[in-house]
Amino acid sequence: MMGSKPQISAARRRFLVDMARTAGGVALFAGGLGLYARQAHSLPSLAIRPPGARDEEQFLGSCIRCGLCVRDCPFDTLSLATLDDAVALGTPYFTARSIPCEMCDDIPCVKACPTGALNPELTDIDAARMGLAVLIDQENCLNFQGLRCEVCYSVCPSIDKAITLERHHNPRSDKHAVFIPVVHSDHCTGCGKCEKACVLEKAAIKILPMYLARGELGQHYRWGWEEKQKAGRSLVTPDQQHQYNLPEGQRYDYAGEGLIYEQGGELPFDADPLETLNRGLEQQR
Amino acid sequence: MTGLQQPGIAATTERGWFARHKWLLARRFSQFAILGLFLLGPWLGIWMVKGNLTSSRTLDVLPLTDPFIFLQSLATGYLPELTAIIGALLVVAFYLLVGGRVFCAWVCPVNIVTDTAHWSRRRLGINAASRLSPNARYWLLGAVLLLALITGSLAWELVNPVSVLHRGLIFGMGFGWLIILAIFLFDLLVSRRGWCGHLCPMGAFYSALGTHSLVRVRADRREHCNDCMDCYAVCPEPQVIRLALKGEQQGKGPVISSAHCTNCGRCIDVCSKEVFTFGSRFHNRPDASRQHQHSSGMEVPQ
Ligand code: SF4
Ligand code: SF4
Ligand code: SF4
Ligand code: SF4
Protein backbone atom coordinates (compact mmCIF):
# COMPACT_ATOMS: atom_id res chain seq x y z
CA MET A 1 0.00 0.00 0.00
CA MET A 2 2.64 2.42 1.10
CA GLY A 3 4.74 1.61 -1.96
CA SER A 4 2.01 2.29 -4.50
CA LYS A 5 1.05 5.68 -3.17
CA PRO A 6 4.13 7.65 -4.24
CA GLN A 7 4.00 5.85 -7.56
CA ILE A 8 0.52 7.14 -8.28
CA SER A 9 1.45 10.61 -7.31
CA ALA A 10 4.55 10.40 -9.51
CA ALA A 11 2.40 9.48 -12.48
CA ARG A 12 0.00 12.20 -11.52
CA ARG A 13 2.79 14.71 -11.21
CA ARG A 14 4.09 13.71 -14.59
CA PHE A 15 0.61 14.13 -16.05
CA LEU A 16 0.27 17.57 -14.51
CA VAL A 17 3.72 18.64 -15.64
CA ASP A 18 2.97 17.44 -19.16
CA MET A 19 -0.29 19.31 -19.15
CA ALA A 20 1.35 22.48 -17.86
CA ARG A 21 4.05 22.16 -20.50
CA THR A 22 1.47 21.76 -23.24
CA ALA A 23 -0.63 24.62 -21.97
CA GLY A 24 2.43 26.82 -21.59
CA GLY A 25 3.70 26.00 -25.05
CA VAL A 26 0.32 26.64 -26.62
CA ALA A 27 -0.11 29.89 -24.72
CA LEU A 28 3.31 31.07 -25.84
CA PHE A 29 2.55 30.15 -29.43
CA ALA A 30 -0.87 31.77 -29.34
CA GLY A 31 0.57 34.94 -27.85
CA GLY A 32 3.20 35.18 -30.55
CA LEU A 33 0.74 34.49 -33.32
CA GLY A 34 -1.69 37.00 -31.83
CA LEU A 35 0.96 39.72 -31.91
CA TYR A 36 1.95 38.79 -35.44
CA ALA A 37 -1.71 38.90 -36.47
CA ARG A 38 -2.07 42.39 -35.01
CA GLN A 39 0.91 43.52 -37.02
CA ALA A 40 -0.53 42.00 -40.17
CA HIS A 41 -3.64 44.11 -39.67
CA SER A 42 -2.11 47.12 -41.35
CA LEU A 43 -2.32 46.97 -45.10
CA PRO A 44 0.82 48.34 -46.76
CA SER A 45 0.22 51.54 -48.64
CA LEU A 46 0.68 50.30 -52.19
CA ALA A 47 -1.37 47.12 -51.91
CA ILE A 48 -4.91 47.65 -53.12
CA ARG A 49 -7.75 45.26 -52.32
CA PRO A 50 -10.09 44.05 -55.08
CA PRO A 51 -13.35 45.93 -55.65
CA GLY A 52 -16.00 45.43 -53.01
CA ALA A 53 -13.51 44.32 -50.35
CA ARG A 54 -14.88 44.95 -46.90
CA ASP A 55 -12.87 47.22 -44.68
CA GLU A 56 -9.51 45.73 -43.81
CA GLU A 57 -10.45 44.69 -40.29
CA GLN A 58 -13.40 42.64 -41.45
CA PHE A 59 -11.73 41.50 -44.64
CA LEU A 60 -9.08 39.65 -42.64
CA GLY A 61 -11.81 37.70 -40.87
CA SER A 62 -14.00 37.05 -43.89
CA CYS A 63 -11.60 36.35 -46.76
CA ILE A 64 -10.65 32.67 -46.58
CA ARG A 65 -7.77 33.05 -49.04
CA CYS A 66 -9.21 30.78 -51.70
CA GLY A 67 -8.06 32.80 -54.69
CA LEU A 68 -11.27 32.41 -56.64
CA CYS A 69 -11.35 36.16 -57.22
CA VAL A 70 -7.81 35.93 -58.57
CA ARG A 71 -8.81 33.18 -60.98
CA ASP A 72 -11.85 34.95 -62.33
CA CYS A 73 -10.19 38.29 -62.99
CA PRO A 74 -9.78 38.35 -66.78
CA PHE A 75 -6.87 40.79 -66.60
CA ASP A 76 -4.71 38.92 -64.08
CA THR A 77 -4.87 41.99 -61.93
CA LEU A 78 -5.07 40.21 -58.61
CA SER A 79 -2.66 37.91 -56.84
CA LEU A 80 -2.56 36.19 -53.46
CA ALA A 81 0.02 37.42 -51.00
CA THR A 82 2.90 35.05 -50.25
CA LEU A 83 5.15 35.15 -47.22
CA ASP A 84 7.45 37.58 -49.07
CA ASP A 85 4.76 40.21 -49.36
CA ALA A 86 3.88 42.57 -46.57
CA VAL A 87 0.20 41.85 -47.13
CA ALA A 88 -1.56 39.34 -44.84
CA LEU A 89 -0.61 35.87 -46.12
CA GLY A 90 -2.88 34.46 -48.82
CA THR A 91 -5.13 37.48 -49.21
CA PRO A 92 -5.81 38.98 -52.65
CA TYR A 93 -4.45 42.39 -53.64
CA PHE A 94 -3.09 44.24 -56.63
CA THR A 95 -0.41 46.81 -57.30
CA ALA A 96 -1.76 49.62 -59.45
CA ARG A 97 1.58 50.41 -61.07
CA SER A 98 1.90 46.80 -62.31
CA ILE A 99 -1.61 45.82 -63.38
CA PRO A 100 -4.48 48.12 -62.49
CA CYS A 101 -8.12 47.06 -62.22
CA GLU A 102 -9.96 47.42 -65.52
CA MET A 103 -13.29 47.99 -63.79
CA CYS A 104 -15.21 45.15 -65.47
CA ASP A 105 -18.91 45.90 -65.84
CA ASP A 106 -19.90 42.47 -64.53
CA ILE A 107 -17.29 42.51 -61.70
CA PRO A 108 -16.33 38.80 -61.97
CA CYS A 109 -14.04 38.94 -58.95
CA VAL A 110 -16.91 39.89 -56.66
CA LYS A 111 -19.15 37.25 -58.19
CA ALA A 112 -16.49 34.59 -57.61
CA CYS A 113 -16.08 35.26 -53.92
CA PRO A 114 -17.76 32.46 -51.96
CA THR A 115 -17.73 34.20 -48.60
CA GLY A 116 -18.81 37.73 -49.42
CA ALA A 117 -15.46 39.14 -48.31
CA LEU A 118 -15.88 41.00 -51.59
CA ASN A 119 -19.29 42.40 -50.85
CA PRO A 120 -21.88 41.06 -53.36
CA GLU A 121 -23.88 44.21 -52.82
CA LEU A 122 -21.41 45.92 -55.13
CA THR A 123 -23.11 45.59 -58.51
CA ASP A 124 -22.08 48.88 -60.08
CA ILE A 125 -18.32 49.04 -60.53
CA ASP A 126 -18.42 52.84 -60.43
CA ALA A 127 -19.43 52.53 -56.81
CA ALA A 128 -16.25 50.59 -55.94
CA ARG A 129 -13.82 52.33 -53.61
CA MET A 130 -10.62 50.31 -53.78
CA GLY A 131 -8.58 53.30 -52.77
CA LEU A 132 -8.20 56.88 -53.83
CA ALA A 133 -5.87 58.43 -56.39
CA VAL A 134 -3.73 61.16 -54.89
CA LEU A 135 -1.51 63.41 -56.98
CA ILE A 136 1.15 63.01 -54.41
CA ASP A 137 4.21 64.58 -56.06
CA GLN A 138 3.34 68.04 -57.33
CA GLU A 139 6.99 68.92 -57.85
CA ASN A 140 7.47 66.31 -60.56
CA CYS A 141 4.01 66.17 -62.09
CA LEU A 142 4.45 67.57 -65.61
CA ASN A 143 1.12 69.34 -65.64
CA PHE A 144 2.05 71.22 -62.50
CA GLN A 145 5.02 72.60 -64.42
CA GLY A 146 2.71 73.89 -67.11
CA LEU A 147 3.18 71.05 -69.60
CA ARG A 148 0.15 69.34 -71.07
CA CYS A 149 0.82 65.71 -70.17
CA GLU A 150 -2.39 64.87 -68.31
CA VAL A 151 -2.17 61.20 -69.26
CA CYS A 152 -3.74 60.32 -65.93
CA TYR A 153 -6.72 62.43 -66.83
CA SER A 154 -7.00 60.92 -70.33
CA VAL A 155 -6.94 57.29 -69.20
CA CYS A 156 -9.35 57.64 -66.31
CA PRO A 157 -12.45 55.51 -66.93
CA SER A 158 -14.44 58.18 -65.12
CA ILE A 159 -12.81 61.04 -66.97
CA ASP A 160 -14.09 64.52 -66.03
CA LYS A 161 -15.75 63.08 -62.98
CA ALA A 162 -13.01 61.31 -61.06
CA ILE A 163 -10.25 63.54 -62.46
CA THR A 164 -10.78 67.03 -63.78
CA LEU A 165 -8.27 69.57 -65.03
CA GLU A 166 -8.45 72.88 -63.18
CA ARG A 167 -7.05 75.87 -65.03
CA HIS A 168 -4.83 78.23 -63.10
CA HIS A 169 -2.42 81.03 -63.85
CA ASN A 170 1.13 79.90 -64.44
CA PRO A 171 3.25 82.03 -62.13
CA ARG A 172 6.53 80.87 -63.70
CA SER A 173 5.98 82.21 -67.20
CA ASP A 174 3.40 84.65 -65.93
CA LYS A 175 1.45 84.48 -69.16
CA HIS A 176 0.47 80.80 -69.60
CA ALA A 177 -1.92 78.53 -67.81
CA VAL A 178 -1.36 75.33 -65.86
CA PHE A 179 -3.91 72.55 -65.89
CA ILE A 180 -3.90 70.87 -62.54
CA PRO A 181 -5.28 67.32 -62.43
CA VAL A 182 -7.65 67.16 -59.47
CA VAL A 183 -9.09 63.88 -58.17
CA HIS A 184 -12.60 63.83 -56.76
CA SER A 185 -13.33 61.24 -54.13
CA ASP A 186 -17.01 61.01 -54.98
CA HIS A 187 -16.17 59.40 -58.32
CA CYS A 188 -12.68 57.92 -58.10
CA THR A 189 -12.89 54.12 -57.71
CA GLY A 190 -9.18 53.67 -57.03
CA CYS A 191 -8.80 51.45 -60.11
CA GLY A 192 -5.22 52.61 -60.58
CA LYS A 193 -5.29 53.25 -64.33
CA CYS A 194 -3.91 56.74 -63.75
CA GLU A 195 -1.02 55.52 -61.60
CA LYS A 196 -0.23 52.84 -64.17
CA ALA A 197 -0.28 55.38 -67.01
CA CYS A 198 1.73 58.18 -65.37
CA VAL A 199 4.67 58.82 -67.72
CA LEU A 200 7.23 59.58 -65.02
CA GLU A 201 9.83 57.03 -63.93
CA LYS A 202 7.88 56.79 -60.73
CA ALA A 203 4.26 57.80 -60.78
CA ALA A 204 3.41 61.23 -59.40
CA ILE A 205 -0.18 60.11 -58.91
CA LYS A 206 -0.65 57.09 -56.68
CA ILE A 207 -3.55 55.07 -55.36
CA LEU A 208 -3.58 55.03 -51.60
CA PRO A 209 -5.85 52.99 -49.37
CA MET A 210 -8.69 55.12 -48.06
CA TYR A 211 -7.35 55.23 -44.56
CA LEU A 212 -4.18 56.88 -45.82
CA ALA A 213 -5.69 59.04 -48.51
CA ARG A 214 -8.43 60.72 -46.57
CA GLY A 215 -8.51 63.15 -43.69
CA GLU A 216 -11.46 63.27 -41.40
CA LEU A 217 -13.28 66.22 -39.89
CA GLY A 218 -13.79 66.37 -36.16
CA GLN A 219 -17.13 64.87 -35.29
CA HIS A 220 -18.44 68.23 -34.16
CA TYR A 221 -17.32 70.18 -37.22
CA ARG A 222 -20.04 71.66 -39.40
CA TRP A 223 -19.62 73.75 -42.49
CA GLY A 224 -21.48 76.94 -41.57
CA TRP A 225 -22.60 77.70 -45.09
CA GLU A 226 -24.06 74.25 -45.57
CA GLU A 227 -25.89 74.36 -42.29
CA LYS A 228 -27.18 77.80 -43.11
CA GLN A 229 -28.51 76.57 -46.42
CA LYS A 230 -30.13 73.55 -44.81
CA ALA A 231 -31.79 75.66 -42.16
CA GLY A 232 -32.65 78.49 -44.51
CA ARG A 233 -31.15 81.04 -42.13
CA SER A 234 -28.01 81.64 -40.19
CA LEU A 235 -27.72 79.43 -37.16
CA VAL A 236 -24.96 81.33 -35.41
CA THR A 237 -26.02 84.95 -34.89
CA PRO A 238 -29.38 86.49 -35.45
CA ASP A 239 -29.27 89.05 -38.26
CA GLN A 240 -28.46 92.19 -36.31
CA GLN A 241 -26.14 95.06 -36.80
CA HIS A 242 -22.60 94.82 -35.56
CA GLN A 243 -21.59 97.30 -32.93
CA TYR A 244 -18.45 98.52 -34.68
CA ASN A 245 -17.18 101.88 -33.75
CA LEU A 246 -17.56 103.36 -37.23
CA PRO A 247 -17.81 106.96 -38.38
CA GLU A 248 -21.24 108.50 -38.88
CA GLY A 249 -23.12 107.19 -41.85
CA GLN A 250 -21.18 103.94 -42.14
CA ARG A 251 -22.05 100.46 -41.04
CA TYR A 252 -20.67 97.00 -41.61
CA ASP A 253 -22.70 94.20 -43.03
CA TYR A 254 -21.44 90.75 -42.11
CA ALA A 255 -23.55 89.05 -44.78
CA GLY A 256 -20.96 89.86 -47.37
CA GLU A 257 -21.66 93.42 -48.31
CA GLY A 258 -18.72 94.84 -46.41
CA LEU A 259 -18.69 98.48 -45.47
CA ILE A 260 -21.87 100.29 -46.35
CA TYR A 261 -22.03 104.05 -46.68
CA GLU A 262 -25.34 105.50 -46.04
CA GLN A 263 -26.53 108.48 -48.05
CA GLY A 264 -24.73 111.62 -46.96
CA GLY A 265 -22.05 109.77 -45.13
CA GLU A 266 -18.47 110.76 -45.47
CA LEU A 267 -16.53 108.66 -47.99
CA PRO A 268 -12.93 107.80 -47.08
CA PHE A 269 -11.98 107.98 -50.74
CA ASP A 270 -13.22 109.62 -53.87
CA ALA A 271 -15.42 107.94 -56.47
CA ASP A 272 -12.62 108.61 -58.95
CA PRO A 273 -9.71 106.31 -58.03
CA LEU A 274 -7.16 108.81 -59.41
CA GLU A 275 -8.39 111.36 -56.94
CA THR A 276 -7.85 108.84 -54.18
CA LEU A 277 -4.35 108.08 -55.32
CA ASN A 278 -3.43 111.72 -55.59
CA ARG A 279 -4.99 112.64 -52.30
CA GLY A 280 -2.71 114.85 -50.28
CA LEU A 281 -0.80 115.93 -53.33
CA GLU A 282 -3.21 118.74 -54.18
CA GLN A 283 -2.43 120.38 -50.94
CA GLN A 284 1.29 120.39 -51.76
CA ARG A 285 0.67 121.82 -55.15
CA MET B 1 15.35 -4.28 -35.73
CA THR B 2 15.06 -4.59 -39.50
CA GLY B 3 11.46 -5.53 -38.87
CA LEU B 4 10.73 -2.16 -37.30
CA GLN B 5 12.95 -0.18 -39.62
CA GLN B 6 11.21 -1.70 -42.57
CA PRO B 7 7.86 -2.79 -41.29
CA GLY B 8 5.92 -4.94 -43.67
CA ILE B 9 8.92 -7.01 -44.72
CA ALA B 10 7.11 -10.08 -43.52
CA ALA B 11 4.05 -9.07 -45.46
CA THR B 12 6.13 -8.45 -48.56
CA THR B 13 7.61 -11.85 -48.59
CA GLU B 14 4.25 -13.44 -48.08
CA ARG B 15 2.07 -11.17 -50.24
CA GLY B 16 4.25 -9.37 -52.73
CA TRP B 17 5.24 -5.72 -52.88
CA PHE B 18 2.13 -4.46 -54.58
CA ALA B 19 -0.34 -6.00 -52.12
CA ARG B 20 1.72 -4.66 -49.27
CA HIS B 21 1.54 -1.12 -50.63
CA LYS B 22 -1.99 -1.14 -52.00
CA TRP B 23 -3.54 1.46 -49.72
CA LEU B 24 -0.41 3.55 -49.57
CA LEU B 25 -0.40 3.78 -53.36
CA ALA B 26 -4.11 4.53 -53.44
CA ARG B 27 -3.57 7.27 -50.90
CA ARG B 28 -0.66 8.85 -52.73
CA PHE B 29 -2.67 8.64 -55.91
CA SER B 30 -5.56 10.43 -54.22
CA GLN B 31 -3.31 13.13 -52.76
CA PHE B 32 -1.52 13.81 -56.01
CA ALA B 33 -4.68 13.54 -58.11
CA ILE B 34 -6.44 16.16 -56.01
CA LEU B 35 -3.44 18.43 -56.19
CA GLY B 36 -3.22 17.70 -59.91
CA LEU B 37 -6.80 18.74 -60.49
CA PHE B 38 -6.04 22.08 -58.89
CA LEU B 39 -2.85 22.43 -60.94
CA LEU B 40 -4.43 21.60 -64.31
CA GLY B 41 -5.68 25.17 -64.46
CA PRO B 42 -2.56 27.21 -63.76
CA TRP B 43 -0.23 24.75 -65.52
CA LEU B 44 -2.21 23.65 -68.56
CA GLY B 45 -5.10 26.08 -68.73
CA ILE B 46 -7.68 23.36 -68.08
CA TRP B 47 -9.92 24.93 -65.49
CA MET B 48 -11.83 22.04 -63.98
CA VAL B 49 -11.17 23.11 -60.42
CA LYS B 50 -10.48 26.65 -59.31
CA GLY B 51 -9.35 27.96 -55.97
CA ASN B 52 -7.61 25.85 -53.36
CA LEU B 53 -8.46 23.61 -50.42
CA THR B 54 -9.90 26.44 -48.36
CA SER B 55 -12.57 26.95 -50.99
CA SER B 56 -12.94 25.78 -54.54
CA ARG B 57 -15.33 25.66 -57.43
CA THR B 58 -15.43 22.50 -59.55
CA LEU B 59 -16.69 22.59 -63.13
CA ASP B 60 -18.15 26.01 -62.30
CA VAL B 61 -20.98 24.50 -60.26
CA LEU B 62 -19.78 22.59 -57.23
CA PRO B 63 -18.61 24.78 -54.33
CA LEU B 64 -16.51 23.16 -51.61
CA THR B 65 -15.31 24.98 -48.53
CA ASP B 66 -13.03 23.81 -45.77
CA PRO B 67 -15.20 23.67 -42.64
CA PHE B 68 -12.23 24.47 -40.40
CA ILE B 69 -11.53 27.84 -41.98
CA PHE B 70 -15.27 28.40 -42.17
CA LEU B 71 -15.48 27.87 -38.41
CA GLN B 72 -12.60 30.28 -37.83
CA SER B 73 -14.36 32.86 -39.93
CA LEU B 74 -17.51 32.38 -37.84
CA ALA B 75 -15.38 32.84 -34.73
CA THR B 76 -14.26 36.24 -35.95
CA GLY B 77 -17.91 37.21 -35.92
CA TYR B 78 -18.50 37.05 -39.66
CA LEU B 79 -21.21 34.99 -41.30
CA PRO B 80 -20.03 33.97 -44.79
CA GLU B 81 -22.33 34.02 -47.79
CA LEU B 82 -24.47 31.09 -48.88
CA THR B 83 -21.94 29.66 -51.36
CA ALA B 84 -19.42 29.12 -48.59
CA ILE B 85 -22.08 27.70 -46.27
CA ILE B 86 -23.21 25.14 -48.86
CA GLY B 87 -19.60 24.28 -49.63
CA ALA B 88 -18.78 23.73 -45.98
CA LEU B 89 -21.89 21.58 -45.41
CA LEU B 90 -21.01 19.35 -48.37
CA VAL B 91 -17.51 18.79 -47.04
CA VAL B 92 -18.77 18.14 -43.52
CA ALA B 93 -21.27 15.58 -44.82
CA PHE B 94 -18.53 13.81 -46.75
CA TYR B 95 -16.18 13.49 -43.80
CA LEU B 96 -18.98 12.49 -41.42
CA LEU B 97 -19.37 9.52 -43.69
CA VAL B 98 -15.83 8.47 -44.52
CA GLY B 99 -14.00 9.59 -41.38
CA GLY B 100 -12.78 13.03 -40.43
CA ARG B 101 -9.11 12.38 -40.74
CA VAL B 102 -9.54 10.90 -44.16
CA PHE B 103 -8.70 14.51 -45.00
CA CYS B 104 -5.29 13.98 -43.43
CA ALA B 105 -4.49 10.66 -45.05
CA TRP B 106 -6.06 11.13 -48.46
CA VAL B 107 -6.13 14.85 -49.21
CA CYS B 108 -3.75 16.98 -47.14
CA PRO B 109 -0.50 17.74 -48.99
CA VAL B 110 1.44 18.16 -45.74
CA ASN B 111 0.85 14.49 -45.05
CA ILE B 112 3.23 13.67 -47.90
CA VAL B 113 5.86 15.83 -46.22
CA THR B 114 5.43 14.40 -42.74
CA ASP B 115 5.22 10.83 -44.05
CA THR B 116 8.48 11.43 -45.87
CA ALA B 117 10.03 12.81 -42.69
CA HIS B 118 8.89 9.76 -40.81
CA TRP B 119 10.18 7.41 -43.48
CA SER B 120 13.57 9.14 -43.50
CA ARG B 121 13.66 9.03 -39.75
CA ARG B 122 13.21 5.28 -39.80
CA ARG B 123 15.76 4.82 -42.56
CA LEU B 124 18.32 7.01 -40.82
CA GLY B 125 17.63 5.43 -37.46
CA ILE B 126 16.85 8.74 -35.77
CA ASN B 127 15.22 8.07 -32.46
CA ALA B 128 15.09 11.50 -30.89
CA ALA B 129 11.66 11.92 -29.42
CA SER B 130 10.57 14.92 -27.43
CA ARG B 131 7.65 14.34 -25.12
CA LEU B 132 4.63 15.92 -26.72
CA SER B 133 1.11 15.20 -25.66
CA PRO B 134 -1.08 13.94 -28.51
CA ASN B 135 -3.75 16.15 -27.01
CA ALA B 136 -1.69 19.29 -27.58
CA ARG B 137 -3.51 19.61 -30.88
CA TYR B 138 -6.82 20.18 -29.11
CA TRP B 139 -5.27 22.93 -27.04
CA LEU B 140 -3.97 24.42 -30.24
CA LEU B 141 -7.36 24.06 -31.88
CA GLY B 142 -8.87 25.96 -28.97
CA ALA B 143 -6.15 28.60 -29.18
CA VAL B 144 -6.71 29.03 -32.91
CA LEU B 145 -10.42 29.63 -32.48
CA LEU B 146 -9.83 31.90 -29.50
CA LEU B 147 -7.33 33.94 -31.51
CA ALA B 148 -9.86 34.34 -34.31
CA LEU B 149 -12.35 35.57 -31.73
CA ILE B 150 -9.93 38.01 -30.12
CA THR B 151 -8.14 39.38 -33.16
CA GLY B 152 -11.18 39.28 -35.45
CA SER B 153 -8.92 37.91 -38.18
CA LEU B 154 -7.99 34.46 -39.41
CA ALA B 155 -4.75 34.56 -37.45
CA TRP B 156 -3.98 30.87 -37.92
CA GLU B 157 -4.01 31.32 -41.67
CA LEU B 158 -0.91 33.48 -41.36
CA VAL B 159 1.10 30.33 -40.61
CA ASN B 160 -1.08 27.27 -41.31
CA PRO B 161 1.30 24.87 -43.12
CA VAL B 162 -1.56 23.08 -44.84
CA SER B 163 -2.82 26.13 -46.67
CA VAL B 164 0.68 27.54 -47.09
CA LEU B 165 1.71 24.40 -48.97
CA HIS B 166 -1.45 23.82 -50.95
CA ARG B 167 -2.05 27.43 -51.90
CA GLY B 168 1.66 27.90 -52.44
CA LEU B 169 1.85 25.10 -55.00
CA ILE B 170 -1.10 26.52 -56.89
CA PHE B 171 -0.70 30.28 -56.52
CA GLY B 172 2.99 30.73 -55.76
CA MET B 173 4.95 29.77 -52.72
CA GLY B 174 7.37 32.59 -51.93
CA PHE B 175 9.13 31.92 -48.65
CA GLY B 176 6.35 29.50 -47.72
CA TRP B 177 8.89 26.72 -48.21
CA LEU B 178 10.44 27.75 -44.93
CA ILE B 179 7.34 26.75 -42.97
CA ILE B 180 7.18 23.42 -44.77
CA LEU B 181 10.88 22.83 -44.22
CA ALA B 182 10.41 23.60 -40.53
CA ILE B 183 7.65 21.00 -40.28
CA PHE B 184 9.81 18.44 -42.08
CA LEU B 185 12.82 19.02 -39.83
CA PHE B 186 10.65 19.02 -36.74
CA ASP B 187 9.23 15.62 -37.64
CA LEU B 188 12.60 14.31 -38.72
CA LEU B 189 14.76 15.46 -35.85
CA VAL B 190 12.64 16.55 -32.93
CA SER B 191 9.55 14.49 -32.52
CA ARG B 192 8.21 11.30 -34.06
CA ARG B 193 5.07 12.16 -35.98
CA GLY B 194 5.35 15.48 -34.20
CA TRP B 195 3.25 17.65 -36.44
CA CYS B 196 0.38 15.51 -37.68
CA GLY B 197 0.29 13.24 -34.67
CA HIS B 198 0.49 15.85 -31.93
CA LEU B 199 0.16 19.45 -32.98
CA CYS B 200 -1.79 20.19 -36.13
CA PRO B 201 -5.04 21.92 -35.09
CA MET B 202 -6.51 21.20 -38.49
CA GLY B 203 -6.02 17.49 -37.90
CA ALA B 204 -7.61 17.98 -34.48
CA PHE B 205 -10.60 19.65 -36.07
CA TYR B 206 -11.05 16.81 -38.55
CA SER B 207 -10.62 14.28 -35.74
CA ALA B 208 -13.44 15.92 -33.85
CA LEU B 209 -15.52 16.07 -36.98
CA GLY B 210 -15.10 12.35 -37.60
CA THR B 211 -15.71 11.13 -34.05
CA HIS B 212 -18.84 9.25 -35.12
CA SER B 213 -18.02 8.68 -38.74
CA LEU B 214 -19.13 5.57 -40.52
CA VAL B 215 -16.09 4.12 -42.28
CA ARG B 216 -13.56 2.54 -39.93
CA VAL B 217 -10.60 0.22 -39.96
CA ARG B 218 -11.45 -3.02 -38.17
CA ALA B 219 -9.17 -5.67 -36.72
CA ASP B 220 -11.58 -8.37 -37.75
CA ARG B 221 -9.04 -11.18 -37.75
CA ARG B 222 -7.32 -10.07 -34.60
CA GLU B 223 -6.99 -13.62 -33.26
CA HIS B 224 -4.45 -14.21 -36.04
CA CYS B 225 -2.15 -11.46 -34.80
CA ASN B 226 1.37 -12.76 -34.26
CA ASP B 227 2.61 -9.68 -32.39
CA CYS B 228 5.09 -8.63 -35.05
CA MET B 229 4.28 -4.96 -34.20
CA ASP B 230 4.50 -3.87 -37.82
CA CYS B 231 1.16 -2.10 -37.65
CA TYR B 232 2.28 -0.04 -34.65
CA ALA B 233 5.42 0.91 -36.52
CA VAL B 234 3.65 2.27 -39.56
CA CYS B 235 0.58 3.78 -37.93
CA PRO B 236 0.72 7.56 -37.71
CA GLU B 237 -1.37 7.34 -34.54
CA PRO B 238 -0.17 4.03 -33.04
CA GLN B 239 -2.10 4.53 -29.81
CA VAL B 240 -5.38 3.88 -31.63
CA ILE B 241 -4.61 0.26 -32.50
CA ARG B 242 -4.19 -1.42 -29.15
CA LEU B 243 -7.79 -1.49 -27.93
CA ALA B 244 -9.16 -2.86 -31.17
CA LEU B 245 -6.37 -5.39 -31.64
CA LYS B 246 -5.82 -6.59 -28.10
CA GLY B 247 -8.99 -5.56 -26.29
CA GLU B 248 -10.99 -8.76 -26.66
CA GLN B 249 -10.37 -9.76 -23.05
CA GLN B 250 -11.37 -6.29 -21.87
CA GLY B 251 -14.61 -6.62 -23.79
CA LYS B 252 -13.61 -4.28 -26.61
CA GLY B 253 -14.78 -4.79 -30.15
CA PRO B 254 -12.51 -4.98 -33.20
CA VAL B 255 -13.37 -1.53 -34.59
CA ILE B 256 -10.65 1.13 -34.38
CA SER B 257 -13.02 3.73 -33.10
CA SER B 258 -10.56 6.44 -32.06
CA ALA B 259 -11.16 9.63 -33.98
CA HIS B 260 -7.39 9.96 -34.36
CA CYS B 261 -7.23 7.10 -36.84
CA THR B 262 -6.69 8.64 -40.25
CA ASN B 263 -8.13 5.71 -42.22
CA CYS B 264 -4.86 5.57 -44.10
CA GLY B 265 -4.98 1.78 -44.32
CA ARG B 266 -1.26 1.33 -43.77
CA CYS B 267 -1.94 -1.29 -41.08
CA ILE B 268 -4.01 -3.25 -43.60
CA ASP B 269 -1.06 -3.10 -46.00
CA VAL B 270 1.71 -4.23 -43.71
CA CYS B 271 0.00 -6.97 -41.75
CA SER B 272 1.17 -10.34 -43.00
CA LYS B 273 -1.77 -11.99 -41.26
CA GLU B 274 -4.33 -9.73 -42.91
CA VAL B 275 -5.83 -8.83 -39.58
CA PHE B 276 -7.18 -5.45 -40.64
CA THR B 277 -9.77 -4.39 -43.17
CA PHE B 278 -11.92 -1.37 -43.95
CA GLY B 279 -15.48 -1.68 -42.72
CA SER B 280 -18.17 0.20 -40.86
CA ARG B 281 -18.31 1.26 -37.24
CA PHE B 282 -21.21 -1.15 -36.57
CA HIS B 283 -20.99 -4.77 -35.37
CA ASN B 284 -18.51 -3.90 -32.69
CA ARG B 285 -19.28 -6.56 -30.10
CA PRO B 286 -16.19 -8.11 -28.54
CA ASP B 287 -16.90 -11.35 -30.41
CA ALA B 288 -17.75 -9.48 -33.57
CA SER B 289 -14.44 -10.38 -35.16
CA ARG B 290 -15.15 -14.10 -35.46
CA GLN B 291 -18.80 -13.55 -36.31
CA HIS B 292 -18.01 -11.04 -38.98
CA GLN B 293 -15.60 -13.41 -40.56
CA HIS B 294 -18.05 -16.22 -40.71
CA SER B 295 -20.96 -14.17 -41.92
CA SER B 296 -18.95 -12.41 -44.60
CA GLY B 297 -17.25 -15.64 -45.56
CA MET B 298 -13.86 -13.93 -45.70
CA GLU B 299 -11.39 -16.55 -46.70
CA VAL B 300 -8.60 -17.40 -44.33
CA PRO B 301 -5.13 -17.72 -45.78
CA GLN B 302 -3.84 -21.21 -45.30
S1 SF4 C 1 -13.15 44.53 -61.65
FE1 SF4 C 1 -12.32 43.25 -63.29
S2 SF4 C 1 -10.22 43.97 -63.58
FE2 SF4 C 1 -10.92 44.77 -61.64
S3 SF4 C 1 -10.15 43.25 -60.18
FE3 SF4 C 1 -12.28 42.71 -60.66
S4 SF4 C 1 -12.13 41.27 -62.30
FE4 SF4 C 1 -10.14 42.26 -62.15
S1 SF4 D 1 -12.66 35.09 -53.54
FE1 SF4 D 1 -13.19 36.12 -51.63
S2 SF4 D 1 -12.55 34.69 -50.03
FE2 SF4 D 1 -11.53 34.04 -51.92
S3 SF4 D 1 -9.54 35.09 -51.87
FE3 SF4 D 1 -10.93 36.41 -53.03
S4 SF4 D 1 -11.74 37.81 -51.49
FE4 SF4 D 1 -10.84 36.10 -50.38
S1 SF4 E 1 -7.90 55.68 -59.81
FE1 SF4 E 1 -7.32 57.22 -61.29
S2 SF4 E 1 -8.04 56.40 -63.22
FE2 SF4 E 1 -9.09 55.24 -61.61
S3 SF4 E 1 -11.01 56.30 -61.23
FE3 SF4 E 1 -9.53 57.15 -59.84
S4 SF4 E 1 -8.68 58.91 -60.86
FE4 SF4 E 1 -9.67 57.67 -62.41
S1 SF4 F 1 -2.66 16.49 -39.18
FE1 SF4 F 1 -2.74 18.45 -40.22
S2 SF4 F 1 -0.97 18.54 -41.52
FE2 SF4 F 1 -1.20 16.42 -40.87
S3 SF4 F 1 -2.33 15.47 -42.50
FE3 SF4 F 1 -3.84 16.18 -40.99
S4 SF4 F 1 -4.42 18.25 -41.62
FE4 SF4 F 1 -2.58 17.67 -42.75
- Main structural class of chain A: alpha+beta
Q: Give the termini distance of chain A in whole angstroms.
A: 134 Å
Work out the radius of gyration of chain B.
20 Å
Estimated structural class of chain B? mainly alpha
Rounded mean pLDDT score of chain A: 85
Helix content of chain B: 55-70%
Ranges of chain B where pLDDT stays below 50 over 5 or more residues in a row are: 293-302
Largest interface, C-beta within 8 A: A-B, 46 and 59 residues
Q: Gyration radius of chain A, to the nearest Å?
A: 33 Å
Q: What is the 3D shape of chain B?
A: globular
User: Strand order, biggest sheet of chain B?
Assistant: 1-2-3
Number of helices of chain B: 16
Order of helices and strands of chain B: HHHEEEHHHHHHHHHEHHHEH
Largest sheet of chain B: 3 strands, antiparallel
Please count the beta strands of chain A (DSSP E, at least 2 residues each): 8
Helix content of chain A: 25-40%
| Proportion of residues in β-strands of chain B | 5-15%
For the largest beta-sheet of chain A, the strand count, sense and barrel status come to:
2 strands, antiparallel
Q: What pattern of helices and strands is seen along the backbone of chain A?
A: HHHEEHEHEEHEHHEEHH
